[in-house]
Known about the structure:
Elements: H1 16-31, H2 51-54, H3 58-74, H4 85-92, E1 96-98, H5 107-110, H6 119-143, H7 150-175, H8 186-189, H9 197-214, H10 229-242, H11 246-257, E2 279-283, H12 293-298, E3 308-310, H13 312-317, H14 323-328, E4 329-333, E5 338-342, E6 358-362, H15 363-376, H16 380-393, H17 404-418, H18 425-432, H19 436-440, H20 458-463
Antiparallel strand pairs: 1-3, 2-6, 4-5
Helix pairs in contact: 1-3, 3-6, 3-7, 6-7, 7-9, 7-10, 9-10, 10-11, 10-15, 11-15, 15-16, 15-17, 16-17
Amino acid sequence: MKIINYTIPLHLFTNRSHNKKWILLLILQTCFLNSCDSFVEVDLPNSQLTSSAVFEDKATANAAMVDIYNKIRDNGLLTGTSSGISNQLGNYTDELTCYGTTASVSIDFYNNALVATNSNISGVWNSSYNQIYCANSVLEGVKNAVALPTSDRNQLTGEALFVRALIHFYLTNLFGDIPFITTTDYKQNSSPKRIPQMEVYDKIKTDLAQAIELLPESYISTEKVRPNKYAAIALLARVDLYSENWKEAAENATKVINKTALYQWTTLNKVFLKQSTTTIWQLMPSVKGKNTFEGETFIFTAGPPPLTALSPSLMNAFSAGDLRKSFWTKAVSNGTNTWYHAYKYKEFQNTTTSLEYSIVLRLAEQYLIRAEAKAHLNDAVGAAQDLNTIRNQAGLANTTATTTNEILEAVLQERRLEFFTEFGHRFFDLKRTNKLDSTLSGVKLGWDAKDKLWPIPATELAVNPNLQPQNFGY
């Protein structure tokens, strides 16, 4: 990538109110360059405006942070478009059936035929590290901002740490050992080394612990689009679960569950509305009246499906009377065949006002985290109680599971039915419980043991030998 230096005349910054737009333009140009071929090639510009000057102003500092969320919504791992992991990992496992052509962005995922030159893989890698770079830009800029009030500095620092932890979490669960990037310095970022996943987890936990200390308990907006303390705790509970710190996972999930002033149960038909009381953190659409990319990606109105449909194995997994099947899936028939699509988000066109936002963290996960952790801690009664909370919300009777193994299997099943088409939960759950091969072998065309990890993009290996060796099998 060719590095571009943006030099803005100093007279443009003599009128503060006039030049907020110029400041914001500069930070968006420098932090969010779309032309970067590799995260190691991103650097701050050698201009007359330093990053700290951008963050001296509350409005532009907040705008920079909000734009990171916009980038997360629109590109990379967590976008609800067909290139995001909600769709791609659904195709990769047993959630979705792909109906796209051979030119579809999902076909190689569905056939488990990924290679290191796959453009979607490199897109995920580069978008993710670009978002991490932007979070680091906020951290460095806020740290050096003298005029920014302490409360704003703490808020922005906490949010940036939360984002950095979030993106690294998904990257390590997709690629295994990865670099953990904590700076915008080009020289340091030019040849980072991969570190073991457990070390990545430790660094994520450190970031989240600091974010928890800095973020307020209340949200700074009514729509839960800027993370608060409990969003960071909710993510930490998940990291603890994945790293098998059962006690900490249960304790952190409990902190979120007990915050009933912020989070309460609601009926299934309201869970994915923008004002849902079970939402912990969500991403706002780009403009008023727009809804979610997930709705656009998964909903279809005529068969055969243009992209994907929910798999028969998923649809057959619902018990009779499960309200999640009634409320969160929808049948489409052409008179001969019937297909089902995800119907958690019900809007796939613009409305007068936005009705649905993309929900990343929600209350149900915390109950299932705690149920699983309690089962591992030999608290079968407590685990069953949390499991039954989820089941009862879905209109189902209490679980019949009693032993630890039975409860763990029941939790995995509830997670499958609760989180389908939500950010790859199914893949990550099968992977961390060592059930990928036994579940998908013979079910998924082309599945083999190497598929538990995605390949490191070939372009990254070419520019940075420290990323070697390539993941096994690629």
